[in-house]
Amino acid sequence: MKKLIAALLILASANAGSAAFGAQPDSAAAPSPKPAAVGETLRPSPATIEQWRDRKFGMFIHFGLYSLAGGLWNGRRIDNGYSEQILANGNLPPQAYAALAGKFDPERFDPDAIVALAKAAGMKYIVITAKHHDGFNLFGTKVTNYNIVEATPYGRDLIRELAEACKRGGIAFGVYYSTIDWHHPGGNRYIEGNSNPITPAQEAFNVAQLKELLSNYGPISEIWFDMGKPTPQQSLHFERTVHRLQPETMVSGRVWNHQGDFTVMGDNAEPSVAVEEPWESPASMFPDTWGYRAWEVRGDVAGKIHEHIGRLVRVVSAGGNYILNIGPEGDGAVVPFEAEVLHGVGDWLKTNGPAIYGTRAQPFKTLDFGYATVGPHTLYLFVEKPPADGRLRLPGVVDTRLGNAAVLGAPSLSLPVSTGADGAVVDISHAAGLGGGFMPVIAVPFEGALHVRPKAVAPDGQGHARLVAANGEAFLRHDGYGYADPPKIYKMGWDVGLGPGRYVAAIAYKPVAKARPARLVVDGRAYPLQVGPSGHAAIPIQRDPAASPYAMRLEITPPSPIGRADHLPMAVRSVDLRPN
Predict the structure, then answer these.
(1) In this structure, what DSSP letter does residue 348 have?
(2) Which of 120, 249, 418, 447 could form a disulfide with 401 if both were Cys (CB 3.0 to 4.6 A apart)?
(3) Contact 552, 543 (CB under 8 A)
(4) Tens of pLDDT along 284-328?
(5) H-helix or E-strand containing 8?
(6) Residue 56 φ/ψ region, left for φ over 0, alpha for ψ in the -120 to 50 degree band, beta for the rest
(7) Rounded to whole angstroms, how far apart are CA atoms 422 and 17?
(8) Is residue 201 classed as helix, strand or coil in its secondary structure?
């Protein structure tokens, strides 16, 4: 959990200066969103959410005036933060930075070639920076002339051209939108962690631009809000503006205040605990920048390919989507190194894509050889570290009809699968090199449902079991009130090796001053739980093997219905189970 919290507290940049950009003040205050009308659809449908989750792998593009600078200013390297934030990181004169627009002519940005590259990489969607923190717009907005159509020699709407190329190429299109804007009066300075409050005038400006993006560029698959410190009402205003125009657009969690449709991990971060809601892990080719950096040491292509295949596998096996960034040069050309990496990942996916797309998270806590995903009738095993004895152990796989396994890309190679009381074993000892590729994938077919017996907390000789944080699972909620707001536990869960019968659950927790409700859920049956100053509660419960055949499943949650902002109202210290 510490790793995840640290990852979510990554600050976007450092040592920034102030800026004043000379734009005309926008005095219009943003009207508050009206309550939803009865029957109004304001969120993506379950089918849209599943389609979004099935894509698994996408392309991020960070491109703008900062690409022209390339991490340099007057020949000096600006190396104290991401290069797309060079305006703040380098404490640059605002007017001098804005003057880059007069030189910005990205004639080598080829939308159809970008789409072709994404498809060759196996990516299913593209998200590009329509506006980053510097306030420069890559689309033909009518609310400021600080945009690529009016302020540059290029003179064309790059966002429109890429949206149309995505439509031609059959790939989903999305846009990144920064809610902070260093070019806008009242928002024109860097604040630590990019936690700028949003002024009413800036809120109105953002809403006007969101209406343009959602009205003029066709279907928007997702809108990737980023940074700022909006109020809950402002986050709601941004989200509702999007969904009233395009209800099926997925809104990123960095709209904050729990108003997103999917959770976003920290930059280049992966979760170390369970995340049940839709989520995405954003990754840059190199961790030190997202925008183009002329002096980046790009190194070993093969090593970078393997790095991002590994990260893609880890994210997908945990149930998330992976969006990998490229940062084109100032003239719009894709960096050759980055193109090579994407082609390398795509070559791997040509063989192993069935184990990625349309799959769900592995049902195992850990596997000693690597990772897994689950398709409709196939369990896919990613072999990162082949065991010395050539046996891939699948703990807890029981009551499931498994067929012989095969290596993706080598279907004629049949691998025997055996089952026993502790689970299943795939014998790869005679599969020399597994085809010789990086992280080969073994496909294990199964009939019906895949049953996995969880690793359970064992009771003592008297039928007592003690549950603590160390032998359970924490489930976290993200994307609350900004990076400074740590993720919160919304559920604790345990699997317990107890048989049928009645028990008493004695729950100890850190006392709370004011009584509040929670829930104890055992094998799917909910029991009301009231927490308060006493710090303990005792609840009679009943084990139901028909609902949870392999182990008692015990969870402590907020009261139902559980919203995205809800979290456990207390810190659980222990749960003691004894026969009743």
Answers:
(1) H
(2) 447
(3) yes
(4) 999 999 999 999 999 999 999 999 999 999 999 999 999 999 999
(5) helix 2-8
(6) left
(7) 60
(8) helix
